[in-house]
Design a protein that fits this description.
Blueprint (H helix, E strand, L loop, with lengths): L1 E6 L9 H7 L4 H10 L2 E3 L2 E2 L11 E6 L16 E5 L3 E6 L16 H8 L6 E2 L8 E7 L2 H10 L1 E9 L5 E5 L2 E3 L7 E3 L7 E10 L2 E8 L6 H8 L22 E9 L6 E5 L4 H4 L4
Parallel strand pairs: 8-15
Antiparallel strand pairs: 1-4, 2-3, 2-4, 5-6, 6-8, 7-8, 9-14, 9-15, 10-13, 11-12, 13-14, 15-16
Length: about 280
């Protein structure tokens, strides 16, 4: 359960409860669930979404964030929580740890650790990292936080490619499925818009460390874009990378920034490059 209290300002007086909550970050879908669960009250009395609120009113909102899927808990999963408050938790995910359970990974995922930490809460990762990608994974503890975080989270990735790229640039190429593959992606004219911004950080051992910001969030976007321009990520066997020096794609979410869903305070986090990626550019 997550309980929030709002004092209606004079400027918001006269709004319906629905419009007031929408103005304060609740999606229409969340408000509908609150209505169904009786989670909106004023002065201890149930408040309908069509009721008008007045300046000075105190609204109490109780969100039931019960898990809607059966995920087995596993407290033995290793992933450090580098930030936590009542609405958000951020993990520093190691490589080779899946985020979600699948046929091959039923009990060894970040979701299983979350289920052990919060047995009555649904798992809501905002940025879903590939199994072999490491770094910061922001998770919302309730529906409202998820709705707001999706709009406010910004991430910076770091990747190592074989070869030398100078300066900075933008890759603006659409991405879609490759043939009938469920997993693999490729650049194709009828794909979805995909924009990747990058900057070279340093060169070492004939390789380049890149700082990358995504304007869109397509599956495998970074990996596909750099493979397409002739610079696949080191260790990325799916897209033609050299796997002789590292056993997974050299990709790490090293920075995350977001507005705390209740206070609006900016939260800035960093995660150092793992040793296997650092060894490529020592």
């Amino acid at each position: 359960m997550r309980e929030l209290t709002f004092t209606v300002s004079e400027a918001d007086g006269g709004l319906t409860a629905l419009d007031f909550l929408r103005r304060h970050g609740f999606s229409r879908r969340i408000v509908t669930k609150l209505k169904q669960s009786g989670g909106i009250t004023r002065g201890g009395e149930l408040l309908r979404t069509v009721d008008r609120v007045n300046g000075g009113d105190i609204l109490r909102v109780v969100m039931d964030d019960s898990a809607n899927e059966n995920v087995e808990s596993n407290p033995d999963i290793r992933a450090a929580a580098v930030y936590e408050d009542d609405d958000v938790i951020v993990f520093d995910k190691p490589p080779f740890l899946p985020v979600h359970p699948s046929i091959r990974h039923r009990t060894d995922t970040l979701a299983n650790l979350y289920a052990a930490m919060f047995p009555d809460a649904a798992f809501r990762p905002i940025n879903r990292l590939d199994r072999n990608t490491s770094g910061l994974c922001v998770c919302a503890k309730n529906r409202r936080a998820a709705s707001l975080l999706i709009k406010s989270v910004s991430k910076t990735y770091f990747a190592v490619i074989d070869g030398i790229i100078e300066g900075s640039g933008v890759i603006d190429l659409p991405i879609g499925r490759e043939g009938d593959s469920i997993i693999k992606r490729t650049v194709r004219e009828d794909g979805q818009s995909a924009v990747t911004r990058y900057k070279a950080v340093l060169h070492k051992n004939g390789r380049t460390l890149l700082e990358i910001v995504l304007e869109t969030g397509r599956t495998h976007q970074i990996r596909v874009h750099f493979a397409h321009i002739g610079y696949p990520l080191c260790g990325d066997d799916m897209y033609g990378g050299d796997c002789s020096a590292i056993g997974r794609q050299a990709l790490h979410c090293g920075r995350a920034e977001f507005a705390q869903p209740v206070t609006g305070e900016r939260v800035k986090l960093e995660s150092a490059l793992p040793e296997d990626i650092r060894s490529l550019i020592k």
